[in-house]
TrEMBL record:
<keyword id="KW-0472">Membrane</keyword>
<dbReference type="GO" id="GO:0016655">
    <property type="term" value="F:oxidoreductase activity, acting on NAD(P)H, quinone or similar compound as acceptor"/>
</dbReference>
<dbReference type="GO" id="GO:0006814">
    <property type="term" value="P:sodium ion transport"/>
</dbReference>
<keyword id="KW-0915">Sodium</keyword>
<keyword id="KW-0830">Ubiquinone</keyword>
<comment type="function">
    <text>NQR complex catalyzes the reduction of ubiquinone-1 to ubiquinol by two successive reactions, coupled with the transport of Na(+) ions from the cytoplasm to the periplasm. NqrA to NqrE are probably involved in the second step, the conversion of ubisemiquinone to ubiquinol.</text>
</comment>
<keyword id="KW-0597">Phosphoprotein</keyword>
<comment type="subunit">
    <text>Composed of six subunits; NqrA, NqrB, NqrC, NqrD, NqrE and NqrF.</text>
</comment>
<keyword id="KW-0812">Transmembrane</keyword>
<protein>
    <recommendedName>
        <fullName>Na(+)-translocating NADH-quinone reductase subunit C</fullName>
        <ecNumber>7.2.1.1</ecNumber>
    </recommendedName>
</protein>
<feature type="domain" description="FMN-binding">
    <location>
        <begin position="150"/>
        <end position="252"/>
    </location>
</feature>
<keyword id="KW-0406">Ion transport</keyword>
<keyword id="KW-0285">Flavoprotein</keyword>
<feature type="modified residue" description="FMN phosphoryl threonine">
    <location>
        <position position="235"/>
    </location>
</feature>
<dbReference type="Pfam" id="PF04205">
    <property type="entry name" value="FMN_bind"/>
</dbReference>
<keyword id="KW-0739">Sodium transport</keyword>
<keyword id="KW-0520">NAD</keyword>
Amino acid sequence: MANKETVSRTLIVALALCIVCSVVVSTAAVMLKPAQVTNQNLDIKSNILAAAGMLEAGATPADIEEQFQRFEVRLLDLDTGEYVDPQSVGFEDAMKYDMYKAASDPALSTVLGSSEDPAGIKRRPNVAKIFILTENGELQRVVLPVHGYGLWSTLYGFVSLEGDANTIEGLGFYSHAETPGLGGEVDNPRWKQQWVGKTVYGDQAGQPEIRLVKGGVDPNDPNGEHRVDALSGATLTSRGVENLLNYWMGENGYATFLQKLRQGEV
Ligand SMILES: Cc1cc2nc3c(=O)[nH]c(=O)nc-3n(C[C@H](O)[C@H](O)[C@H](O)COP(=O)(O)O)c2cc1C
């Protein structure tokens, strides 16, 4: 009987197995891509609703879609504080625009020098994607994406402001790699609850005044409405959160737009 265990047969079997496996893996990757994109979009929508205090416990994907439909998705020129047509950045639909992809495109973003970059983002997209909720012509909520560097990672999240474009309705980060139990406590619901009702701006409308206070906010602090307890054992992440919020609420972020919004100019 001829020997079946030759080197060439072994190589052919190994090669055939590799081809079959790679076809299976790539087919699965291609077929699962739409489901992945749908789930990612759903996750972003649920984070927007969570920041806005509109995510019910146990909400189904259909509930999330329904609630999210109440928001208008708008693109915003950060320098002028005016809305822009999605087609000006090459999109039919505002929802399809990705401001984080735009941040890595030199034609759609601006390089930040170190003195103008307290959030450590290096490049800022020229156009942001924001979410507006109005009822009977009255602004109810505006949800703004924010991001910036903590200790180990860039934190990505949303801040929701009430109709006065100043009072915080909620804040949440949906992506970061800070240490669980230390910087990762940015996800702790009790810590996040502290933000509800705080205000971004004081007397100077364009100047954000958010501070995270190490050791806890003094109840008699006259500026308590802009203050939140820093995360214990995570001063560096806390500083990152303070910096990124003040950056995005400042003149290079949303301040121009929010001022126009308060004055009814947009
Ligand atoms: C393994 C390890 C992980 C850490 N992770 C964080 C973190 O995610 N965020 C943070 O601010 N500090 C983190 N720290 C602590 C910082 O090095 C630093 O000590 C801390 O921010 C100081 O905060 P405190 O003044 O409140 O103690 C970590 C330290 C170690 C050893």
